[in-house]
Amino acid sequence: MSVQTFKRYKWTWLLLILALIMAGYLAINSLNLGKEKLPVIGEVQDFSLENVNGDQVTLADTQGKARLVYFFFTQCPDVCPITTFLLSQTQKILVEDGSFGKDTGFVSISFDPKNDTREAIKAFADRFQANYDGWYFLRGDQEEVRKLATDSFKVLIAGNSKENFVHANRIALVDRNNQLRALYDAGDTENVTPEFLADQLTELARE
Q1: Most exposed residue of 87, 91, 107, 190, measured as fewest CB within 10 angstroms of its CB?
Q2: Of the candidates 99, 101, 91, which has an alpha carbon nearest to the alpha carbon of residue 130?
Q3: How buried is 173 (Cβ within 10 angstroms: 0-12 exposed, 13-18 middle, 19+ buried)?
Q4: Over the stretch 103-148, which tens digit does the pLDDT of each residue have?
Q5: How many beta carbons lie within 10 A of that of residue 105, not counting itself?
Q6: pTM, rounded to two decimals
């Protein structure tokens, strides 16, 4: 191209270059477009529960991480093992990206203290290769746990250890500041995948 031709069409070229720069900028930032922050739908109340080592773990001990919270019982015949496996697959993704135990973590809380001893819970957790650096398995007084589940996580639990428990199979997403941000139906296997949960947790950890 001659200098004379460039001078003649310089504004056209400048506009084209500017358009390409803007297109590149939008492409780079497109991942953030349309991604609204999840709303705060509740506050998680304080708790003090026992872990598999017999130590008391409070809400403050898990703070500073984006967390997935799940209520379960080890003798569950169906949904609890399946959902815990889902979490274990999510754990693998988060361990690989280096965030698990540092910026992200899980809290699994048993609501059947009669049968779910520390030993029973640890055996259950070990089946799913739980990484205790970022995965808290906890137990406590049945009524206190039920109140925590209902009041903070909108998870209804019915029945007792003599019968079979009935409970909402939900996974709660909690931010660094102990605010409830989302509830996922763990039975929705088409949408609630390990990749989806890991992505949601990672995004929340970046806030």
Answers
A1: 190
A2: 91
A3: buried
A4: 999 999 999 999 999 999 999 999 999 999 999 999 999 999 999 9
A5: 25
A6: 0.81
